[in-house]
Amino acid sequence: MKITVIGAGAWGTAVALLAAQKGLEVALWARRPEQAEALQAMRENREYLPGVALPANLRPTSSADEALEGTALAVVAVPSRALAQTLAPMPKAPAYLSLTKGLAYTAHGLTRMSQVIAEATGVERVAALSGPNLAEEIARFQPAASVVAAAEPGLAQQVQKLLGGPSFRVYTSRDLAGVELGGALKNVIALAAGMVDGLRLGDNAKAALMTRALREIVRFGVAQGAHSETFYGLSGLGDLIATCTSLHSRNRGAGEKIARGATLEELEASKQVVEGVYTVKALHAWGQESGVELPITEAVYRVVYRGERPLEVLSDLMGREAKPE
Ligand SMILES: NC(=O)C1=CN([C@@H]2O[C@H](COP(=O)(O)OP(=O)(O)OC[C@H]3O[C@@H](n4cnc5c(N)ncnc54)[C@H](O)[C@@H]3O)[C@@H](O)[C@H]2O)C=CC1
Ligand SMILES: O=C(CO)COP(=O)(O)O
């Protein structure tokens, strides 16, 4: 069986490696022809995932026709901002799996990545995989677990069989919204966690941030139609822990850089995608329209987009009205 991974960044390459290890024929589509050629020539993704050899059954290409011909599943690992424009002109696959952790604010309101994929391709069979999954560890087959969610249970089970293996335990879920929202919102909180690290505010501060943020994520997610239990699972709490504490996390690292004075332009110029920067903007736009308060998310927005100082924003959060937990 053949599967196609669209997007040859760190995460697309890591998941392509998981699929190749299962003996599948794997096409890895890279946007730039020179990137596909470099992957092919070096049998390594030196730009985004150095130090890991690509096996022979993993075939890099920049041709969408070649990548998608005869495929059973397209696994999408393109940054959220480029998702619709990347997929729309490509040949269609029978089903899609979203690996992208982001949120968009469109004319339809807040839009999850599986919805962006369905709209861009016209294909309704779309699943999402999310969990505490840092690409650098998964690519080295260090043990990890994840959740695949789809409205159609058969699709989630198909992905579970295709990607699950000795180092990667995959659970299924019916809560597509919950799995996607947990993965998107934790990136915003990881920016805040990075600021806590950069300002050396301490372990108590980070634990308080993550705990109160989880409450905020649950409140928001349930209002969006997700199930609260999903946020206490791998794609919620699990990913929140991994991303807020890992030295590999680009979002947490970006928060540290912000605390040391990095600007939005500098973050956007990074070769590696920092999704939290776009997710927080979408959430802010939604909050303005809906009137729903997301205090921690709003604090991150004020620092990233209004250039306010993290310590001043923190002081506002600490000074909010006293209330029961
Ligand atoms: N790196 C990780 O550990 C994980 C990442 N993710 C998610 O996967 C998605 C992809 O992230 P990574 O693979 O880590 O990215 P990356 O930061 O390693 O690489 C960026 C990728 O995006 C491509 N790209 C940049 N601009 C583009 C554009 N305008 N059009 C098309 N492609 C473009 C680059 O060529 C490269 O392949 C993100 O949504 C991220 O949140 C999810 C789980 C783990
Ligand atoms: O989603 C991730 C881990 O599950 C990766 O997080 P970063 O994008 O912050 O590196």
UniProtKB/TrEMBL annotation:
The active site is at residue 186. Its EC number is 1.1.1.94. NAD(+) binds at residues 7-12, 135, 250. It is found in: Cytoplasm. It is an enzyme of class 1 (oxidoreductase). One of its GO terms (biological process) is carbohydrate metabolic process. Pfam families: NAD_Gly3P_dh_C, NAD_Gly3P_dh_N. NCBIfam families: PRK00094.1-2, PRK00094.1-4, PRK14618.1. Belongs to the NAD-dependent glycerol-3-phosphate dehydrogenase family. This is Glycerol-3-phosphate dehydrogenase [NAD(P)+]. It comes from Calidithermus terrae. The lineage of its organism: Bacteria, Thermotogati, Deinococcota, Deinococci, Thermales. The gene is gpsA.
